[in-house]
Amino acid sequence: MALPAVQREGIQAAVQAARVRTHATRNATVIEVDPTNQVAMVTTDGPEGGPFGADIVAPVALYPGDRVTVLFTPPHGAMVVGRQGGDRDDWHVIGTAGEPQYGSGWAAAAGTTEIGNNGPARLAFTKEGRRVELRGRADRVSGVNNNVFPLPQDYRPENDLLIQAGGNLGGASPITIDRLTGTITVIAGANTLIADGVSFLAAPPVGT
User: Fold this and answer.
1) How much is the pLDDT for 9?
2) Nearest CA to 68 among 48, 89, 85?
3) Alpha-carbon distance 92 to 66, whole Å?
4) pTM of model > 0.70
5) 65: buried, middle or exposed (CB in 10 Å: 19+, 13-18, 0-12)?
6) Are 40 and 68 in contact (CB under 8 A)?
7) Strands 147-150, 24-33: parallel, antiparallel or unpaired by DSSP?
8) CB atoms near residue 93 (< 10 Å)
9) Could you give the domains of the chain?
């Protein structure tokens, strides 16, 4: 007697899941990590779904939101074998609607354009995993304020940073990034910030 379509589909799904759990890897997202960093609760992109526990065998510290690779193999079950870079979010252009605004006396450098066009970029930032990247140029147009713009909470470093960026006439000029406020500040007297190539790790999510 032929099985109903729903039953056939259920059996096929169970068989496929059994195959996957024996010899496959899946991309996954970390939901929670135990305090010893030995087991992570993950959800996979594949049919296994989740959340379920996976032993952490990769030599990395994991945090909720990290993208990882999970290996299914008997008799151990699921194991985290690597951390991925994570998905890159959109470029956040300073001074545009809904994004951080320039500090008093600062503005987009003359001749800059949207990212993706031919020409120097307007000042912007993005994040891939925990890696924050800055790009673009800004100029001082008035005053003596050295604070260029603030980064949002999820883009701030774990410690105060002192990083080399580009400055006047293409020379190197250090900037500071405050871990509490996210404020990016140029040294006194600097009238240009060229952020192309500046990157750093954001602090782990709050509560981890």
Assistant:
1) 46
2) 85
3) 21
4) no
5) middle
6) yes
7) unpaired
8) 21
9) 5-83 (2.40.50.140), 92-201 (2.60.40)
Q: With H, G, I as helix, E, B as strand and everything else as coil, classify residue 100.
A: coil
Strands 39-44 and 24-33: antiparallel
Look-up of token digits 């147009």: 141
Do 76 and 84 meet the contact criterion of CB atoms below 8 Å apart? no
Mapping DSSP onto H, E and C, the string for 22-86 reads HHEEEEEEEEEECCCCCEEEEEECCCCCCCEEEEECCCCCCCCCCEEEEEEECCCEEEEEEECCC
Three-state SS at 199:
strand
Q: How far are the Cα atoms of 9, 120, 148, 169 from residue 137, in angstroms, in the given order?
A: 56, 7, 11, 12
Rounded average pLDDT per 10-residue block, the chain, 208 residues: 45 43 75 90 81 86 85 79 76 96 97 90 91 95 97 96 84 92 95 94 76
Q: Locate 160 and state its tokens.
A: 């105060």
The owner of tokens 């406020």 is 181
